[in-house]
Protein backbone atom coordinates (compact mmCIF):
# COMPACT_ATOMS: atom_id res chain seq x y z
CA UNK A 1 0.00 0.00 0.00
CA UNK A 2 1.09 3.56 -0.67
CA UNK A 3 0.38 6.41 1.75
CA UNK A 4 0.24 10.20 1.43
CA UNK A 5 0.16 13.08 3.86
CA UNK A 6 -3.36 14.42 4.26
CA UNK A 7 -3.12 18.09 3.33
CA UNK A 8 -1.23 20.09 5.94
CA UNK A 9 -2.04 17.68 8.76
CA UNK A 10 0.41 15.19 10.22
CA UNK A 11 -1.89 12.33 9.21
CA UNK A 12 -0.97 9.78 6.56
CA UNK A 13 -3.69 8.03 4.60
CA UNK A 14 -3.72 5.21 2.07
CA UNK A 15 -3.85 6.21 -1.61
CA UNK A 16 -7.04 4.17 -1.86
CA UNK A 17 -10.01 4.75 0.44
CA UNK A 18 -12.83 2.27 0.94
CA UNK A 19 -16.16 3.95 0.27
CA UNK A 20 -19.15 2.56 2.13
CA UNK A 21 -21.98 3.97 0.02
CA UNK A 22 -22.85 0.42 -1.06
CA UNK A 23 -23.38 -0.74 2.54
CA UNK A 24 -26.96 -1.32 3.66
CA UNK A 25 -30.03 0.34 2.26
CA UNK A 26 -32.73 -2.28 2.50
CA UNK A 27 -35.89 -0.81 1.04
CA UNK A 28 -34.69 2.79 1.35
CA UNK A 29 -34.48 4.49 -2.06
CA UNK A 30 -32.10 5.25 -3.68
CA UNK A 31 -29.68 3.27 -1.53
CA UNK A 32 -31.36 -0.07 -2.23
CA UNK A 33 -30.23 0.34 -5.86
CA UNK A 34 -26.67 1.43 -5.01
CA UNK A 35 -25.46 -1.69 -3.27
CA UNK A 36 -27.69 -2.91 -0.47
CA UNK A 37 -24.87 -5.01 0.95
CA UNK A 38 -25.61 -7.07 4.04
CA UNK A 39 -23.71 -6.85 7.33
CA UNK A 40 -21.63 -9.90 6.42
CA UNK A 41 -20.83 -8.63 2.92
CA UNK A 42 -19.91 -5.18 4.26
CA UNK A 43 -17.68 -6.59 7.00
CA UNK A 44 -15.89 -8.83 4.50
CA UNK A 45 -15.03 -5.83 2.31
CA UNK A 46 -13.88 -3.76 5.30
CA UNK A 47 -11.56 -6.47 6.55
CA UNK A 48 -10.24 -7.19 3.05
CA UNK A 49 -9.44 -3.51 2.66
CA UNK A 50 -7.73 -3.23 6.03
CA UNK A 51 -5.72 -6.40 5.42
CA UNK A 52 -4.50 -4.87 2.14
CA UNK A 53 -3.29 -1.73 3.94
CA UNK A 54 -6.20 0.63 3.28
CA UNK A 55 -6.56 2.77 6.39
CA UNK A 56 -9.44 5.09 5.43
CA UNK A 57 -13.12 4.13 5.40
CA UNK A 58 -15.53 6.79 4.17
CA UNK A 59 -19.25 6.79 4.87
CA UNK A 60 -22.05 9.33 5.44
CA UNK A 61 -25.07 9.67 7.68
CA UNK A 62 -27.43 9.31 4.71
CA UNK A 63 -25.82 6.27 3.07
CA UNK A 64 -28.19 3.35 3.33
CA UNK A 65 -30.62 5.54 5.23
CA UNK A 66 -28.13 5.56 8.12
CA UNK A 67 -27.46 1.84 7.95
CA UNK A 68 -24.05 2.28 6.31
CA UNK A 69 -22.64 3.92 9.43
CA UNK A 70 -24.06 1.13 11.57
CA UNK A 71 -22.51 -1.57 9.40
CA UNK A 72 -19.15 0.23 9.27
CA UNK A 73 -19.16 0.55 13.05
CA UNK A 74 -19.91 -3.12 13.54
CA UNK A 75 -17.26 -4.17 11.03
CA UNK A 76 -14.64 -2.02 12.77
CA UNK A 77 -15.54 -3.06 16.30
CA UNK A 78 -12.23 -4.87 16.89
CA UNK A 79 -10.10 -2.79 14.50
CA UNK A 80 -11.16 0.80 15.16
CA UNK A 81 -7.63 1.98 15.93
CA UNK A 82 -6.41 0.88 12.49
CA UNK A 83 -8.73 3.22 10.63
CA UNK A 84 -9.09 6.87 9.74
CA UNK A 85 -12.86 6.88 9.97
CA UNK A 86 -14.59 9.51 7.83
CA UNK A 87 -18.25 10.42 7.65
CA UNK A 88 -20.37 13.31 6.37
CA UNK A 89 -23.41 15.38 7.24
CA UNK A 90 -25.76 17.89 5.58
CA UNK A 91 -28.55 16.12 3.62
CA UNK A 92 -32.01 15.72 5.08
CA UNK A 93 -32.30 12.97 7.69
CA UNK A 94 -35.85 13.62 8.90
CA UNK A 95 -39.08 15.46 8.14
CA UNK A 96 -38.48 18.43 10.43
CA UNK A 97 -37.42 21.89 9.24
CA UNK A 98 -34.11 21.55 11.10
CA UNK A 99 -33.29 18.00 10.02
CA UNK A 100 -31.02 19.22 7.23
CA UNK A 101 -28.19 21.64 6.57
CA UNK A 102 -25.34 23.05 8.61
CA UNK A 103 -26.90 25.02 11.45
CA UNK A 104 -25.23 24.60 14.84
CA UNK A 105 -28.25 22.57 15.95
CA UNK A 106 -28.15 20.16 13.03
CA UNK A 107 -24.36 19.81 13.04
CA UNK A 108 -24.31 19.03 16.78
CA UNK A 109 -27.13 16.53 16.57
CA UNK A 110 -25.79 14.87 13.42
CA UNK A 111 -22.40 14.33 15.05
CA UNK A 112 -23.98 12.67 18.08
CA UNK A 113 -26.16 10.46 15.89
CA UNK A 114 -23.18 9.41 13.74
CA UNK A 115 -21.07 8.58 16.78
CA UNK A 116 -23.88 6.41 18.11
CA UNK A 117 -24.35 4.55 14.84
CA UNK A 118 -20.60 4.11 14.32
CA UNK A 119 -20.12 2.91 17.89
CA UNK A 120 -17.16 5.21 18.53
CA UNK A 121 -16.33 8.21 20.69
CA UNK A 122 -14.80 10.23 17.85
CA UNK A 123 -14.75 10.62 14.09
CA UNK A 124 -11.34 11.12 12.51
CA UNK A 125 -12.67 13.18 9.60
CA UNK A 126 -16.05 14.92 9.54
CA UNK A 127 -17.06 16.38 6.18
CA UNK A 128 -19.83 18.74 5.13
CA UNK A 129 -21.55 16.79 2.37
CA UNK A 130 -22.67 19.80 0.34
CA UNK A 131 -22.80 23.59 0.49
CA UNK A 132 -25.38 25.29 2.67
CA UNK A 133 -26.35 28.62 1.12
CA UNK A 134 -28.64 29.54 4.04
CA UNK A 135 -26.59 29.03 7.21
CA UNK A 136 -23.87 31.62 7.85
CA UNK A 137 -20.54 29.87 7.34
CA UNK A 138 -19.25 31.33 10.63
CA UNK A 139 -22.01 29.48 12.51
CA UNK A 140 -21.06 26.17 10.93
CA UNK A 141 -17.33 26.68 11.46
CA UNK A 142 -17.80 27.51 15.14
CA UNK A 143 -19.94 24.39 15.64
CA UNK A 144 -17.28 22.26 13.96
CA UNK A 145 -14.54 23.95 15.97
CA UNK A 146 -16.42 23.14 19.18
CA UNK A 147 -16.67 19.49 18.13
CA UNK A 148 -12.93 19.36 17.51
CA UNK A 149 -12.17 20.98 20.86
CA UNK A 150 -14.47 18.45 22.55
CA UNK A 151 -12.52 15.59 20.97
CA UNK A 152 -15.52 14.25 19.06
CA UNK A 153 -13.97 15.16 15.70
CA UNK A 154 -10.25 15.22 14.86
CA UNK A 155 -10.24 16.83 11.39
CA UNK A 156 -12.87 18.59 9.30
CA UNK A 157 -13.44 18.76 5.56
CA UNK A 158 -16.00 19.51 2.88
CA UNK A 159 -17.44 17.72 -0.11
CA UNK A 160 -18.87 19.00 -3.38
CA UNK A 161 -17.94 22.64 -2.69
CA UNK A 162 -16.96 25.17 -5.33
CA UNK A 163 -13.51 26.72 -5.15
CA UNK A 164 -14.77 30.10 -3.92
CA UNK A 165 -16.79 28.44 -1.17
CA UNK A 166 -13.80 26.47 0.10
CA UNK A 167 -11.53 29.53 -0.10
CA UNK A 168 -14.07 31.56 1.89
CA UNK A 169 -14.13 28.86 4.55
CA UNK A 170 -10.34 28.78 4.78
CA UNK A 171 -10.24 32.56 5.05
CA UNK A 172 -12.85 32.69 7.82
CA UNK A 173 -11.02 30.01 9.78
CA UNK A 174 -7.82 32.01 9.61
CA UNK A 175 -9.59 35.26 10.48
CA UNK A 176 -11.38 33.88 13.54
CA UNK A 177 -8.82 31.30 14.69
CA UNK A 178 -11.13 28.36 14.02
CA UNK A 179 -10.38 24.80 12.91
CA UNK A 180 -9.33 24.76 9.27
CA UNK A 181 -10.78 22.51 6.58
CA UNK A 182 -8.18 19.82 6.00
CA UNK A 183 -9.80 18.07 3.05
CA UNK A 184 -12.06 18.37 0.05
CA UNK A 185 -13.93 15.38 -1.34
CA UNK A 186 -14.82 15.82 -5.01
CA UNK A 187 -15.81 13.94 -8.14
CA UNK A 188 -12.88 13.34 -10.49
CA UNK A 189 -12.49 10.90 -13.35
CA UNK A 190 -11.31 10.81 -16.94
CA UNK A 191 -14.93 11.44 -17.90
CA UNK A 192 -15.33 14.30 -15.42
CA UNK A 193 -12.40 16.71 -15.16
CA UNK A 194 -14.29 19.91 -14.26
CA UNK A 195 -12.43 20.37 -10.96
CA UNK A 196 -9.19 21.04 -12.88
CA UNK A 197 -10.40 24.54 -13.75
CA UNK A 198 -10.63 26.03 -10.25
CA UNK A 199 -10.76 23.41 -7.49
CA UNK A 200 -7.58 21.45 -8.18
CA UNK A 201 -5.38 24.58 -8.38
CA UNK A 202 -6.90 25.76 -5.09
CA UNK A 203 -6.28 22.58 -3.11
CA UNK A 204 -2.72 22.44 -4.39
CA UNK A 205 -2.07 26.05 -3.42
CA UNK A 206 -3.85 25.90 -0.05
CA UNK A 207 -2.48 22.52 1.02
CA UNK A 208 -5.90 20.87 1.27
CA UNK A 209 -6.05 17.10 0.96
CA UNK A 210 -8.10 15.90 -2.02
CA UNK A 211 -10.21 12.75 -1.74
CA UNK A 212 -11.78 11.89 -5.08
CA UNK A 213 -14.98 9.96 -5.52
CA UNK A 214 -16.34 7.95 -8.46
CA UNK A 215 -13.01 7.57 -10.31
CA UNK A 216 -14.75 5.17 -12.72
CA UNK A 217 -17.62 7.62 -13.38
CA UNK A 218 -20.17 5.45 -11.66
CA UNK A 219 -18.86 2.32 -13.35
CA UNK A 220 -18.94 3.77 -16.86
CA UNK A 221 -15.14 3.47 -17.13
CA UNK A 222 -15.02 -0.01 -15.60
CA UNK A 223 -14.44 -1.70 -18.94
CA UNK A 224 -17.96 -3.09 -19.01
CA UNK A 225 -19.40 -0.30 -21.15
CA UNK A 226 -18.79 0.69 -24.75
CA UNK A 227 -20.53 1.63 -27.97
CA UNK A 228 -21.46 -2.03 -28.36
CA UNK A 229 -23.41 -1.95 -25.09
CA UNK A 230 -22.62 -3.35 -21.67
CA UNK A 231 -21.60 -6.69 -20.22
CA UNK A 232 -23.02 -5.75 -16.82
CA UNK A 233 -26.78 -5.37 -17.16
CA UNK A 234 -27.10 -5.32 -13.37
CA UNK A 235 -25.01 -2.18 -13.00
CA UNK A 236 -26.75 0.91 -11.60
CA UNK A 237 -25.27 2.73 -14.62
CA UNK A 238 -27.87 1.01 -16.78
CA UNK A 239 -30.68 2.80 -14.93
CA UNK A 240 -29.03 5.84 -13.32
CA UNK A 241 -26.95 8.51 -15.01
CA UNK A 242 -24.85 9.44 -11.99
CA UNK A 243 -22.47 11.09 -12.13
CA UNK A 244 -23.57 12.50 -15.49
CA UNK A 245 -21.28 11.84 -18.45
CA UNK A 246 -21.16 12.81 -22.09
CA UNK A 247 -21.51 9.27 -23.39
CA UNK A 248 -20.09 9.84 -26.87
CA UNK A 249 -17.03 11.57 -25.42
CA UNK A 250 -16.74 8.85 -22.78
CA UNK A 251 -16.78 6.14 -25.46
CA UNK A 252 -13.76 7.82 -27.06
CA UNK A 253 -12.03 7.75 -23.67
CA UNK A 254 -12.90 4.08 -23.24
CA UNK A 255 -11.35 3.29 -26.63
CA UNK A 256 -8.03 4.76 -25.47
CA UNK A 257 -8.34 3.11 -22.06
CA UNK A 258 -8.66 -0.26 -23.74
CA UNK A 259 -5.51 0.34 -25.79
CA UNK A 260 -3.51 1.37 -22.72
CA UNK A 261 -4.93 -1.52 -20.69
CA UNK A 262 -3.77 -3.95 -23.36
CA UNK A 263 -0.32 -2.37 -23.39
CA UNK A 264 -0.10 -2.56 -19.62
CA UNK A 265 -1.70 -6.02 -19.44
CA UNK A 266 -4.12 -4.59 -16.91
CA UNK A 267 -7.86 -4.09 -16.64
CA UNK A 268 -9.54 -0.97 -18.01
CA UNK A 269 -10.68 -0.06 -14.49
CA UNK A 270 -7.13 -0.26 -13.16
CA UNK A 271 -5.87 2.09 -15.85
CA UNK A 272 -8.70 4.58 -15.19
CA UNK A 273 -7.89 4.52 -11.48
CA UNK A 274 -4.16 4.80 -12.12
CA UNK A 275 -4.73 7.96 -14.16
CA UNK A 276 -6.52 9.65 -11.24
CA UNK A 277 -3.85 8.48 -8.80
CA UNK A 278 -1.19 10.00 -11.05
CA UNK A 279 -2.69 13.51 -10.95
CA UNK A 280 -0.77 15.99 -8.80
CA UNK A 281 -2.84 17.09 -5.82
CA UNK A 282 -4.85 13.88 -5.45
CA UNK A 283 -4.33 12.43 -1.96
CA UNK A 284 -6.58 9.38 -1.98
CA UNK A 285 -9.06 7.83 -4.39
CA UNK A 286 -12.33 6.51 -2.96
CA UNK A 287 -13.32 3.16 -4.36
CA UNK A 288 -16.89 1.99 -3.87
CA UNK A 289 -17.35 -1.70 -4.59
CA UNK A 290 -19.94 -4.40 -4.15
CA UNK A 291 -17.78 -7.52 -4.39
CA UNK A 292 -14.37 -8.69 -3.12
CA UNK A 293 -13.10 -9.26 -6.68
CA UNK A 294 -13.85 -5.63 -7.55
CA UNK A 295 -11.80 -4.46 -4.55
CA UNK A 296 -8.96 -6.79 -5.51
CA UNK A 297 -8.95 -5.36 -9.04
CA UNK A 298 -9.01 -1.78 -7.74
CA UNK A 299 -6.07 -2.49 -5.43
CA UNK A 300 -4.09 -3.57 -8.48
CA UNK A 301 -4.25 -0.01 -9.81
CA UNK A 302 -1.61 0.97 -7.26
CA UNK A 303 0.95 -1.07 -9.19
CA UNK A 304 0.16 0.52 -12.55
CA UNK A 305 2.79 3.01 -13.72
CA UNK A 306 1.53 4.80 -16.81
CA UNK A 307 4.20 5.88 -19.28
CA UNK A 308 4.43 9.55 -20.35
CA UNK A 309 2.98 8.61 -23.76
CA UNK A 310 0.07 6.76 -22.14
CA UNK A 311 -0.66 9.65 -19.79
CA UNK A 312 -0.52 12.05 -22.72
CA UNK A 313 -2.93 9.95 -24.76
CA UNK A 314 -5.42 9.77 -21.90
CA UNK A 315 -5.03 13.47 -21.13
CA UNK A 316 -5.65 14.48 -24.73
CA UNK A 317 -8.71 12.32 -25.34
CA UNK A 318 -10.38 13.47 -22.09
CA UNK A 319 -9.30 17.12 -21.87
CA UNK A 320 -12.21 19.46 -21.07
CA UNK A 321 -12.58 22.57 -23.24
CA UNK A 322 -10.84 25.64 -21.81
CA UNK A 323 -13.02 28.00 -19.78
CA UNK A 324 -12.62 31.68 -19.13
CA UNK A 325 -10.47 33.11 -17.60
CA UNK A 326 -8.22 30.08 -17.95
CA UNK A 327 -7.86 30.34 -21.69
CA UNK A 328 -6.80 33.96 -21.61
CA UNK A 329 -4.48 33.58 -18.64
CA UNK A 330 -2.70 30.75 -20.43
CA UNK A 331 -1.66 33.18 -23.18
CA UNK A 332 0.53 35.28 -20.89
CA UNK A 333 3.61 33.16 -21.53
CA UNK A 334 5.62 34.60 -18.64
CA UNK A 335 7.70 31.47 -18.09
CA UNK A 336 10.90 31.17 -20.06
CA UNK A 337 11.17 28.58 -22.79
CA UNK A 338 12.00 25.15 -21.39
CA UNK A 339 10.74 25.91 -17.86
CA UNK A 340 8.89 23.11 -16.05
CA UNK A 341 6.62 23.01 -13.01
Question: How do the helices and strands line up, and which of them pair or pack?
Answer:
Elements: E1 3-5, E2 12-14, E3 16-19, H1 31-34, H2 39-51, E4 56-58, H3 67-75, E5 84-89, H4 104-118, E6 123-128, H5 137-149, E7 153-159, H6 163-176, E8 181-187, H7 199-206, E9 209-213, E10 225-226, E11 229-230, H8 247-264, H9 268-277, E12 282-288, H10 292-299, H11 308-318, H12 326-329
Parallel strand pairs: 3-4, 3-12, 4-5, 5-6, 6-7, 7-8, 8-9, 9-12
Antiparallel strand pairs: 1-2, 10-11
Q: Order the strands across the largest sheet as they lie in space.
A: 3-4-5-6-7-8-9-12
Low-confidence region ranges: none
User: Which CATH first-tier class of the domain at 3-218 and 279-291 would you pick?
Assistant: Alpha Beta
The number of helical segments is 12
Number-wise, the strands total 12
Q: Rg, please?
A: 20 Å
Shape: globular
Write up this protein.
This protein has 341 residues and is α/β, with parallel strands linked by helices. The chain has a domain of 229 residues: Alpha-Beta Barrel (TIM Barrel). It is built from twelve helices and twelve strands. The strands form three sheets. Strands 3-4-5-6-7-8-9-12 form an eight-stranded parallel barrel, surrounded by six helices. Helix 4 runs parallel beside helix 5 and helix 8 packs antiparallel against helix 11. The longest helix has 18 residues. The chain starts with a strand and ends in a 12-residue tail after the last helix. The relative contact order is 0.12. The mean pLDDT is 94.
